[in-house]
Amino acid sequence: MKLRLFAFALTLVCLLSFAGVALAQDAVPVNEGETVITLENGVVGTLNMPESDSPVPAVLMLHGFASSRNEVGDMYLRLAAALAERGIGSLRIDFAGWGDSAGDMAASTVSGMVADAELALAYLQGVEGVDASRLGILGFSLGGGITVFTAGENPDAFKSMALWSTFGNLRDIFIEELTQENFDAAAANGTVEIDLGWRMVTLGNGFFTGLEDFDYQTEFPNYTGSFMVVAGSEDGSADFLDWYREHAQGALRASYLVPGADHIYNVLTEDQTLAEATIKATANWFAMTL
Prior knowledge:
Elements: E1 8-9, E2 12-13, E3 34-38, E4 44-48, E5 56-62, H1 75-85, E6 89-93, H2 110-125, E7 130-140, H3 142-153, E8 160-164, H4 170-189, E9 191-195, E10 200-204, H5 205-209, H6 216-219, E11 226-232, H7 241-247, E12 252-258, H8 273-289
Parallel strand pairs: 1-12, 2-12, 5-6, 5-7, 7-8, 8-11, 11-12
Antiparallel strand pairs: 3-4, 4-6, 9-10
Helix pairs in contact: 1-8, 2-3
């Protein structure tokens, strides 16, 4: 597919200006202006609305596999605070069957997650005080794939997008991470229980077969807004930085390689420098593009 001509291409490779801020693990911000909401399908989310006399832009945040709306190391909680400081609202949700949301984990599918995201989008568009013409979307890992699919199916809904640690073909990465043995067990038995090391999950066969419900190479070019992709240098998702930046259709596109960072930006270590750099860079991106 021929790429659109773009007025400005921005490549961020090691943003040293963002790397000097450390946040101790026990210094997790308690966000003001937050409200827990429940969507009509039982999906639970946290809405953060900064004080403002005029409508504000807002970002929809989609969590990764086996995670929840605050994300690992409270990275989404912390990002919501950073966005609010910049006058940007946010909504972070638990997909159905995960976190506090209703539903059965074993029934979760990629298509269901996209439907949850679309319902959250519709809710956010109707929130009093949100400027629905200035919405962003962010996805982490699997949530990045859901972000690509959601924006691809709703190409006019979002003005800006950011992806953290996002791969390409979902089936390929899940076979690599969860093994063909678990794919086969789910097909044979209907469900499979998997020890991820940090938690147990139960997945249905529909989760595995649904990994091919959408094609990132088809969906991503449908989105034409501003775009930023972030990955740690020690994570396999870094292999996709160039592809996403080169296939972005908007006028403003960026890639941000975090040197020395793993899939979760070292957020579970004592040194929070890389995680905080990722949060700050993303908050600044949305402040610039919304």
